[in-house]
Amino acid sequence: MPNTDPVVDSAPILNALLDAAAREARVPVGFTAAITRGLAGRELTDMAELRALGAAAFTDDGRPVADAGVFRRALQYQRLCGGVLALHEEDPALSGSGAMHEGEVSALLGVTGIPSVSESTMIARDCALAEYEGARIHLQHLSARESVVAAAAAKARGVQVTCEVSPHHLTMTDEDVRGLDTRRKMNPPLRAALDRQTLVEGLRSGVVDCIATDHAPHARDEKEVPFEQAPMGTTGLETAFAAVHTDLVVPGTLELGLVVEKMTAGLGLLGLLVPKIAAGEPANLVLVDLAAEWTVGESGYESRSDNCCLAGRRLKGRVLLTVAAGAVVYRERSIMLSAA
């Protein structure tokens, strides 16, 4: 994602990242570039140049393109240069200084809330503009019932729109924020039970196209502050499969095959090559022990960050081995396997 320092909004910065990934990355890595310079929402980047260099998509990541005129020009540019606009959907005038979902729990805790319409109204606007311009958009991390309804309506009209949901929004609600654990503060926030149920149904019906982690690491000291002062974001790469498997597959809510499909569909939505299991193809495989039970964080994390919203939870299903682009890139610590 481009929300780094410096922001990935120019060819030299993207080139430097591509070179670094070619030298250092153990797995195939793709980069998105910013829609607007400095993620400021005012001046468009040179999307054609960035796309030609290999930008997988364009996004202002955790910020919306609030100005409708700027967003319309971005759609026109996207139609010319290809790629897709991946959008964080939020109306800042409605979300304001909110720190969690606006509902009964936020009222009880006395925490300023973020209403679900701050997300769904922007989705409706962006889908309408994408329809008008004949452009492609991807809606990031849906969290609300109204958002699924808006996305379904746009798809029914033939809008070129895809969308994703994150594991934490599929498995947790604002009830899990009662303890004001800052690891459970993210944007969009954990919402109500009906919202969670609608997201699950969106996966089943096909309205929601894929599951994406929205992995957002933070240093420990950043999160060790009062809830309303803490930055948004939770990690999720290490727990993504196990969380969805435990809460949705084991109880029989979703089929395992559907979850596997939704967790591997994201590349195709960005026009990238989806790995396949076939003779002669580089191996891209994951070995999972579906019966293994483990407690999140009990043995530490592979990530350098530990702001995981699922910390302390007992999960069922564990990734033991990952092979990416033909090479073993991860082994679970408790097993001894040969790379040969």
Structural commentary:
This protein has 340 residues and is of the alpha/beta class. It has a domain of 188 residues: Metal-dependent hydrolases (TIM Barrel, Alpha-Beta Barrel). Helices cover 35% and strands 13% of the residues. The chain has 13 helices and 9 strands. The strands form 3 sheets. A 4-stranded parallel beta sheet has the order 1-4-5-6. Strands 7-8-9 form a 3-stranded antiparallel beta sheet, with helices on one face. Strands 2-3 form a two-stranded parallel sheet. Strand 2, helix 5 and strand 3 form a beta-alpha-beta unit. Helix 2 crosses helix 3 and helix 3 crosses helix 6. The mean pLDDT is 95.
Number of helices: 13
Shape: globular
Mean pLDDT: 95
Stretches where pLDDT falls below 50 for ≥5 residues? none
Give the class-level CATH name of the domain at 89-276: Alpha Beta
Portion of residues in helices? Answer: 25-40%
Q: What CATH architecture of the domain at 89-276 do you see?
A: Alpha-Beta Barrel
Structural class by sheet pairing and helices:
alpha/beta
C-alpha Rg, in Å?
20 Å
Series of secondary-structure elements, N-terminal to C-terminal: HHHEHEHEHEHEHHEHHHHEEE
Give the strand content: 5-15%
CATH superfamily of the domain at 89-276: Metal-dependent hydrolases
How far apart lie the N and C ends? 34 Å
What's the topology here?
Blueprint: H1 11-24, H2 47-53, H3 68-81, E1 85-87, H4 92-95, E2 100-101, H5 104-109, E3 113-114, H6 117-133, E4 137-139, H7 145-156, E5 161-165, H8 167-171, H9 193-205, E6 210-211, H10 220-223, H11 240-249, H12 256-263, H13 266-269, E7 285-295, E8 314-324, E9 327-331
Parallel strand pairs: 1-4, 2-3, 4-5, 5-6
Antiparallel strand pairs: 7-8, 8-9
